[in-house]
Please model this.
Amino acid sequence: MGTWSRVGLVLLGVAGATQGGFGGDAAGATRGAPTLIASALRSTPTTTPESTSVPATTAGSDGSAAEVLFEDPFDDDRNEWGVVEDPQYGSAAFDDGDYVWEFRGSVAHWLPAVLGGQFDRGELDMRDVVVHAELTILDGDGVAGVFCRENPDTDAEWQWYEFVARDGYAAIRQSDLEANIDVLAETDDVSLPVGEPIVIDATCVDDADGDAQLSLAVNGTSVIHATDDAPLENGVPGLQAWTFPVHEQINIRWHEFSVTQAEA
Model:
């Protein structure tokens, strides 16, 4: 059980998902497979897809070059985000260059299998990163955004930092698969009308003292910042959403996702 502190909503039986799954009321999500719901529905590629992770650079906020660690324009499922069609909890599919969610579960915690596999093999280095997503919330009152540093927890299977927003609310939180949510920073000073595109940039970086410096920018404007003196370790980034009220459908079109190296 956990609490969405923004509205005091008690989430019952939230399972979450790690590798391509919507959370419903079904428990038992594992790292090696999606949740119970998605594992039965997700298509299985006949060949191992090539990741769009590229050794490229992009301009940083100060004009310097930043290394692009991973990017996906959502043209197709080459990075194995997953395709789901479930009558109870909704769907995820690729359509016209977008990754489209019509989601009725409690929480969607979603990462590409190519990055999950790199983490499991000890090959992923995404501790200090900027996670970028472009999206449009078409309908619904839930929140959506990105996460970083998903890694094993002591009292839940997985934990992460999430950066989520909706019209009139934005937050940086530490969450886990048991729906324990610790709000690190929040604000109601954001205007994000439903149906308008949103650009989210989440920075996760450790400073010289070893504290995690966490920042959220929305549509190019910095909105909140938090410091965690017990930082999460290296882990996988991805996409995040919570419904509100719980199980009230939220429809999201994800247009673009990328991860760049951040300077400590």
In short: The chain has one domain: 55-261. Helices lie at 36-41, 113-120. The CA atoms of residues 197 and 228 lie 30 Å apart.
